[in-house]
Amino acid sequence: MAQHIKFDTIIPILITSLLLSACATQPHKELSEVMRLQQQAQTNYNEGDLTQAQSDYLELTRVLPGDESNWFHLANTYARAGQLELAVNAYRHVLAHDATHAKAWHNLGVVLMQQSQAAFIQSARHAKADPEVQRASLNMGQALEALIHPSSPPASKQIAYPPPPVTDIEAPPPGAVRAP
């Protein structure tokens, strides 16, 4: 009977030990998986595989919703992929949780300027009946291009703006006298 009692005592201790050791190793396994996913996301981003980097960073924001660095990197993937609305939303998420995140503020500003530039380009394309608005929109689009990409060649050579409006009346050469 003494062995039976000992056996009954040992089994719960063994089960408890196994459960505790499993609990102790589980966070370590999750941590290593998260670290692997972060490294994979960064590698994909650096190599230009933005679709996979977005997927990785989305997963990281689900696993670690309070880690603003993952949200910031997700926003960067959206911005680089031209998904400007998604980038704006992700940067704003970061800033809602950390209003002192200077890089998020900077990148949000750049993305908002890109959206503004796109609006001015559309304005210029649709302002055929109003040459003044078309010219002003072209000027704003070019000025924003110079701000967004300061080291790039002049915007007029880089962006496909619509040609200036064509008028039906030819202007007389300078100094010419018009007939009454």
Give an account of the 3D structure:
The protein folds into 2 domains: about 1-85, Serine Threonine Protein Phosphatase 5, Tetratricopeptide repeat (Alpha Horseshoe), CATH 1.25.40; about 100-165. Helix content is about 75%, strand content about 0%. The model is unreliable at about 10-25 and about 155-180 (pLDDT under 50). The chain has 7 helices and no strands. The longest helix is centred in the N-terminal third of the chain and has 45 residues, at about 1-45. It has helices at about 1-45, 50-65, 70-80, 85-95, 100-125, 130-150, 155-160. With about 180 residues, the chain is mainly α. The termini are far apart.
Biggest sheet overview = none
What is the domain tally? 2
Low-confidence stretches: 11-26, 155-180
Number of helices: 7
Mean pLDDT figure: 78
- Described by its quaternary structure, the protein is single chain
User: Proportion of β residues?
Assistant: under 5%
